[in-house]
Design goal:
The protein is an all-alpha fold and 337 residues long. 75% of the residues lie in helices and 0% in strands. It has one domain.
Length: 337
Amino acid sequence: MPIHDVGYRSWLGNRMPRVHSFLIMVFSGIMITRRSAWIRRMLAAAWLPALYIGFGFYLVEQALQALDPGQRRMFVEMFGPVVGIPSRDLFEQGLTTGEIDRHRVWAALIAVFLAYPQSVASLLLTGLIAPPLISRDLRTRAYLIYFSKPISKWDYIGGKLTTVAAFLSLITLVPALAMILVGVLFAPDLSVVTEIWDLPIRILLASLVFIIPTSTIALMFSSLTHESRYAALGWFMFWVLGFAGWQMIRGGLVIGLSTIAQAQGEPVNPEELFLQVGDGPWSLFSLMSLYESLIRIQQWLLGARESMPIPQLIVIALLTWFSLAVISRRVTAPIRV
């Protein structure tokens, strides 16, 4: 009789839920990533713009509680430029009631917060977090350990994506929702909640539409190489070259249209031309910039842009799908061999 049965024996103990594998990937990725002192410093620094924009909420509420529109105008003209609140938007478009002003201005402040300081912070933070997540596993062959466990490729990919998304949420979604809470606290009463009830939902969608494509594309670069520094270089070059290319084309178009208008003896307003090129038929060139495409979608979701950016939505969706397909193939390639 055999002393040891080395054949297959089914597991007789308690089984953990399938989601446990995904959560282990997420928690381990977060715990490893947070060890970096640079990442902790950047997370702390990324909250500084929230204090700046939060002061804008205070100014807006003080202006809306003024006795008459004239006092509101004086208050915003004095302090509005400090936080980027254009008095022209507030008063020249007939937004004189506190209810309409509050919703529009709160959404505009959140749009500025997500479009400028947090987008740059997200670019830098993603460049620190995402590149080593997959490339390090490919270099050290850690995938052999992962996939020897009951972990599917989508558990692995989803865990890596959620790791990046969790850190990006800490500097986009969480501070934006915190500023809404600050605005409610500064409001004269809780009736303000009925006026801005949709803003948290809009903020969630605007944050996700930025976080998901950003995380997916960054991890695609990570999966293409065993060296994380090359993945980081590819990530930054992808952003910078696209943005620089669009700005060069936009500047060239403005100069060309200005020259034509001057030759025809027409008055030239560079600001209007700049906006015309950015929102007119020439705006299709903005598709080459991931940053510009994401910002336009965010502004539409927050109500700062009326027309739906359909070309940008299509391009971002295709980029996300393509990145997921590349990650899936690269992650499973060593196993297929």
